[in-house]
Amino acid sequence: MSGVSTATSLPALLVERARTNAADVAYRWFGHGIWNEVTWEGLRDKAGAIGAGLQHLGVRVGEVVAIVTTEGEEWFTAELGALGIGAVVLGLDPSVGESTLRSALRIAGAVVVIAGDQEQYDKIQDDRASVPSVRHIVVCASRGMRYLNHLDEPDEHGVIGLAQLVAAPGNPTQWEAQAHSLNADALAQSVVMGDRVEQRTHRDVLLHCETVMTALVVTAHDALAPQGSLADPLEHALAMGGALSRGASLHFGPAGPTSVGVRHVQPHIVLATPAWADSLAADVGRQRAASRGIKRLALDRGLSRREPSAQLHNGRSISPTLVAGVVATVAAASWLLLSVKVNDVLRMVVLALIMAAVGVALALSGRGVAGPLRRRYGLSRCRAVVTTEALGTSGQLLGALDVPVMVMSSPLMNRALATEVSV
């Protein structure tokens, strides 16, 4: 996107991006064994169709639309569609229990719930009377609810499939105009914190995005890979803000560190939950030949709270002193071989010393083991892994793999500030 953007909301950024980079890939998602690509123009059209469908259901400006799904691409488009009509988005963790989910919906006053599948639908419908504000439930994956595929309008319980929602009468063009004229100080996100509700404006969301994307040095050539359940609205803001404001692409692949999704994408930045890092640690631990070296390196290079944030991206794993020592050894040996008459035995001894010095340097730096493992787990070009909780041993292992870690603790998530960085 050329020039400085004047957009004051994520939907407005999407409209700008769709106009200037319409044919560029906005995100890829893995389904039915293949990768599917969606352009910025296609994303705008999908978000507009969802927004128009929500308006058809009667959603008004300022009303709360809850999203509870494990599929990143569904969350991505649904949130943009809802925000574009002036609705307030409530992000909910799909792994929470029934009572917790219904309590959050009740406290926030959600009028529409976009549920990922029948499991999430059942959590709400089993005691629908406890959430009187919910007028409609939109089910994304209606497997097991086949009758939804034949509904043109919500059934007697206000339930409709996502495919039918986007096909409902509406005006996506009007959504684009609304999205571009959103007030920056209007509410955009609602977060339930226990028994209270915290709200964020469009301006707040953009500020969160810009803070973290600047820290991670996200560019238009980067790939961002959300892993696991990104249930916190800030994490979605990071993903959307990074893609929309910087032109980076998102990749919603199969979850798991050894999956085809991560290997195929080779992401520059992974937005991960601690469970993802734990899964990686467990899988590496099963590789007996490499695990002993990784554990040793993890002990030698554990996380340090005192690491300066400036070291987040420099990828440093060989100390300057070590590099200087290797260079001096190679230079001295080269001078010796070129300037002094030596026999073949001495020549071989000198060459062996050079090889040993380089080998020790690589072993001490971790690259001797980290390189192959980074490639194996799809992290060969990964600049950072962003998480929301302390990682402990898993973080040490990522450090040993030469993957910088940006850990965001819950008290500081509202300000989108990194509290712990390790290289």
Question: Can you describe this structure?
Answer:
There is one protein chain. The chain has 423 residues and is of the alpha/beta class. It has 16 helices and 15 strands. The protein has three domains: 10-252, Rossmann fold; 272-317 and 367-422, no CATH class; 320-365. The strands form two sheets. An eight-stranded mixed sheet has the order 2-1-11-10-12-13-14-15, sandwiched between helices. The longest helix has 22 residues, at 344-365.
**Beta fraction:** 15-25%
Reading off the top of the CATH hierarchy, the class of the largest domain is best stated as Alpha Beta
| Straight-line distance between termini | 32 Å
Output the CATH topology of the largest domain: Rossmann fold
Q: Any idea how many domains?
A: 3
CATH superfamily of the largest domain: ANL, N-terminal domain
Give the averaged pLDDT, no decimals: 76
* Shape, per Cα inertia axes: elongated
Tell me the CATH architecture of the largest domain: 3-Layer(aba) Sandwich
Largest sheet data: 8 strands, mixed
Helix share, percent: 40-55%
Distinct helical segment count: 16
- Annotation, overall tally of beta strands: 15
